């Protein structure tokens, strides 16, 4: 599990405008993964499960019924640097995933979405803008090693990472 020191002001975002470098893109077979992108809420209910956010240790209630995307919607994943020179993970979705994530990102502006694999939150980034092109960029105050580790966790260690 990756931990960041509290001296950082963590600002995780999903952005639709990324300059992707497919040099290290992995076209991955995610069938064996238990990957999901799920909505979060501020309150517990019979349809939510509580998780600890791995970055700030806060409790996040995740809607376990309404899955936005799962491993079937993932096409590619890669690591790179964003336009500000910060390490990032890029995720390309298929057509169905693009449509569902576009709607979810619009409805969840300013809220977190949970990236879950094997019933564990990998990351819970805050949505800063609508993602309509099917390319998700996850960036923030991460080191290159942390980004590579997150990528490996997202693909469930089923494929070699670069």
Describe the structure.
- The chain is α+β, with helices and mostly antiparallel strands and 162 residues long.
- It has helices at 95-107, 144-154, and strands at 13-15, 26-27, 35-41, 48-52, 59-70, 74-81, 87-93, 113-117, 120-123, 126-127, 135-139.
- The strands form two sheets. Strands 2-6-7-11-1-10 form a six-stranded mixed β-sheet.
- The protein is globular.
- Residues 1-23 and 157-162 have low confidence and may be disordered.
Task: Throw out a few tags for this protein.
Gyrase A, domain 2, disordered C terminus, 2 helices, 162 residues, six-stranded mixed beta sheet, disordered N terminus, globular, alpha+beta, five-stranded antiparallel beta sheet
Radius of gyration: 14 Å
Order of helices and strands: EEEEEEEHEEEEH
Per DSSP E runs of 2 or more residues, the count of β-strands stands at 11
- Ends apart, CA distance between termini: 19 Å
What is the level-2 CATH architecture name?
2-Layer Sandwich
Structural class: alpha+beta
Outline, from the CA principal axes?
A: globular
Please list the strands of the largest sheet in the order they lie side by side: 2-6-7-11-1-10
Proportion of strand residues? 35-45%
Low-confidence stretches at least 5 residues in length (pLDDT < 50)?
A: 1-23, 157-162
Mean pLDDT: 79
- According to CATH, what is the topology? Gyrase A, domain 2
Count of individual helical segments: 2
CATH class categorisation:
Alpha Beta
Largest sheet: 6 strands, mixed
Quickly count the domains: 1
Helical content class: 10-25%
């Amino acid at each position: 599990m990756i931990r960041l020191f509290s001296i950082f002001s963590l600002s995780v975002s999903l952005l639709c405008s990324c300059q992707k470098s497919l040099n290290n893109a992995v076209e991955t077979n995610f069938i064996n993964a238990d990957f999901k992108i799920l909505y979060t809420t501020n309150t517990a209910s019979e349809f939510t499960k509580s998780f600890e956010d791995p970055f700030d240790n806060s409790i996040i209630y995740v809607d376990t019924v309404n899955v936005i995307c799962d491993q079937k919607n993932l096409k590619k994943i890669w690591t790179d640097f964003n336009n500000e020179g910060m390490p990032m993970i890029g995720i390309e979705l298929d057509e169905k995933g693009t449509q569902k994530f576009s709607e979810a990102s619009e409805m969840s502006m300013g809220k977190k979405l949970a990236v879950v694999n094997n019933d564990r939150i990998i990351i819970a980034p805050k949505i800063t803008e609508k993602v309509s092109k099917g390319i998700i960029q996850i960036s923030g105050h991460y080191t290159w090693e942390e980004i590579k580790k997150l990528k490996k966790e997202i693909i469930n260690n089923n494929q070699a990472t670069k």
